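Listing S7. Sequence submitted for prediction.
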Amino acid sequence: MGSGPASNEPPARSTSPEGSAAPTAPPVRYRSPDEDGARWLGFPFRDGDLVISTRSKSGTTWVQMICALLVFKTPQLPRPLADLSPWFDWLTAPRDAVLARLEAQTHRRFIKTHLPLDGLPLDPRATYLVVARHPLDAAVSMYHHQTNLDRARWRDLVGLAPGPQAPPERPSLHDWMAEWIDDTTAIEENLDRMLGIFHHLRDAWARRGEPNVVLLHYADLVADLDGVMRALADRIGEQVPESVWPDLVTAAGFASMQDRAADLVPDRSGVIRDPKAFFRAGRSGAHDGVLTAAELARYHDRAATLADPELLAWLHRG
């Protein structure tokens, strides 16, 4: 369920490692059967809005939870996380209905998107949080996530005809990952394949000097959750009483989030079959031992053609 630019609207930027569009370039329209970046056109931003931009399975829900904790300053959230922080591009609910929910919020808003920054209106009133994860770990997580989706329910919600009664047999994780490394699917077809992941991160990396763009790394959340949360609070101007920090960090931990899966899973419409299974592992290095040395070498050779060494060193650490 990835997305890419509409076929009749090619990307308005280079896909080379050094290429980047000017911040004032009009957004690229990324569109797929279940999401459409055009929903952001005319979005009524407010001062202080937070927009969480990630590729799938890269820490989206984790950072949404962290934002919720920093905004409300208590582990007891007033609503399920998906209600507080909707995925605005997703077509499972009408745009007007999602927008009305956001307009009714009186707290600081934090909104989810899987679009790259070049597919969004970049408003100076908002801060854009881009979350990166080692692409091979994200791919492993995506493989497992796909088995937890009720595709019949999804197709019904987005208005597609029913699919085949029996889904095709899935390859093993190893075979799927080996194919993922060699996959040449363009971003026009699927942003969750290798080219799309690197495009998303390369675009954000090129904008990292902007005052309202923040890059976060999944490995840092694993290694030093307290430190990352404190640094993010400083960056977005949230003053958190020292007395509540331990409870907030505990609530943002993987075990606590898994225990609260029913309220934190990013879906209120039944597309995700098992909320607890959505929080499957929560660690870095998920790809260790899956691929052969030759396959890993192929991955790194290809990654070197898609991003500059500085970005790769940052992306692959941890």
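Caption to Listing S7: primary sequence and predicted structure tokens for the chain studied. The chain has one domain: 4-316. The chain is about 40% helix and 10% strand.
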